[in-house]
């Protein structure tokens, strides 16, 4: 009996894997235009990093991490997101200690959360993640959001909307929390779900984004964060919005957008789609000015986002697989050396293709050629080998002609024989 795949973990073959390559290549190309460099961080970190970075009271840390002890009894976790690891690397590498300057770091790769798998929600999923460190300016928030929207449009993804809110800072958020808790306590306590009954004490902001109907109805009437912002936060947020407007980037103010990770302050945002079932957020992020310091580094502000690649993949226009250019059909074993040389010569000229490596009847070999999807079949029998030629068959229109070995590449590339 075979060994099965783990639930919530996927194997990606083309065309899915091709879609992932496309998402990553556009990200590399576009983000570089904004000054981002690529960083690769480990998939596993000490659990403490996520506890301190993401927050003990978050669902991610409380319920969703894959955590285990190594042989020395140290607690390790598979990364549930990239930001905490990027901050650790930023501090570890000494980059954080350098005076001044803005650092733009981009990462991509698998993340792990033990959630109930469904469409667009996996236990191993992939993020494209960007962090801009060292700028407290609203320009950094707006530039990052502009880049994200340009990226999503560049992928051909439509039907999305940008939701935005400000979570305030250490000065003004406590006032909001107080007002919120007073409001939540004033409601019928029996109506809250079990999680929210606890959250009112531990993390009241999370009640605002609870999806349960009763909690959601209560949250609708809750006070708005934006009404409680201090002057600095209000001014920061209005500048972010003005910069977005200057670029024609549409947004919806979403008073209930609080995000599921504890490190955020000021600007927070999500991009949502109505076309992927229950899992509507395709990207999320925001500002996290205290995080580097909280993890033992200097006081360096930051803002970032991550896109969920599984969810982007559901919205991508169909990816056309690139067809192979040739299939070399060697009719007899004695033709294999020439077939091998021809295949290598064609590849050295940038063409793609393969050849048969065992002999079979002609019909069966032609079927193999057809199945390969190649545009041309180079038939090599003893006659052709003796004449240093191939019979080149166009598999789309069945035209065929004898072509010298040296002219095959040119013929395949241009569709004509320039001998
Ligand atoms: P997040 O909202 O937890 O933020 O995740 C970002 C995106 O990852 C989500 O919008 C979603 O598309 C995708 N995602 C999350 N969980 C899953 C899952 N189980 N299956 C498939 N996709 C999923 C963060 O992770 C922050 N670190 C983003 C950030 C970067 N904030 C600042 N910098």
Protein model, in words:
- The chain has 419 residues and is an alpha+beta fold.
- The chain is 36% helix and 21% strand.
- β15 and β16 form a beta hairpin.
- It is elongated and about 90 Å long.
- Bound molecules: histidyl-adenosine monophosphate (HAM).
- Histidyl-adenosine monophosphate binds next to β6, β10, β11 and α11.
Helical residue percent band? 25-40%
Shape assignment: elongated
Task: Name the strands of the widest sheet in spatial order.
Answer: 1-5-6-11-10-9-7-8
Task: Measure the end-to-end span.
Answer: 57 Å
**Radius of gyration of CA atoms, rounded to a whole number:** 28 Å
Helix-and-strand structural type? alpha+beta
* Average of the residue pLDDT scores: 95
Described by strand count, sense and barrel closure, the largest sheet is: 8 strands, mixed
Poorly predicted runs of 5 or more residues: none
Classify the beta-strand content into a percent band: 15-25%
Instruction: Catalogue the ligands.
Output: histidyl-adenosine monophosphate
By DSSP, the count of extended strands is: 16
Separate helix tally: 15
